[in-house]
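User: Could you check the structure of this?
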Amino acid sequence: MNQQLLAKTFVELADNLVADFDLIDFLRLLTDRCVGMLDASAAGVLLADRDGKLRVMAASDEQVRLLELFQLQNDEGPCLDCFRTGTPVIVPDLTREITRWPRFVTAAHRSGFGAVQALPMRLRDETVGALNLFRATPGPFDLAATPVAQALADVATISLLQQRSSQRSTVLNEQLQTALNSRVLIEQAKGKLAERQSIDMEQAFTTLRGYARAHNRRLSDVARAFIDDSEPLPGLVP
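Assistant: Sure, the predicted structure tokens are below.
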């Protein structure tokens, strides 16, 4: 494990706890760091909306985002089980779980994944989502890395509630709904930019994210401006 990157990641997460941060960008940072540090091929984050339904909020690449959506659409998979039980679901070899999750296992293998680790995003006794780590090859997960991944999931959960309030559940619902609305905008902007520049969806997201960071703006604000053509965005589209 890259100790220097690990330390940097916790500093970045802590910085986000004391500022008005872009949640979508924050969660994407979380998935990217998990891939970089924890020997994962890909990572995704699912969060529950105000009705308790899981939504895909971030993914390290387009392939795992589609796999996470497949889980939700088919109501089957380790990430759903993790969220429902509030406990980690660790599967070193997905082939052994074909009876338990037949559709998910087939889809995961088709996407190139052989193992998965789903970790709950908890606040006290309430589970608000799951951090999911996918690996291409089957085999045991690093015992030292699992507590680190859970710690990252816990910090991410706390970041959702950085504004302390006695009405904690109300604040959480508002924040998650805002993030869900932002996610929709960003997906629309990705599609529009991908079509306009003839690039794939992952490249479109990277372009939008890079533009937002370079101009010190929220990713969702850039996405909205691009969709609506409400302002010039010099440099975003040649």
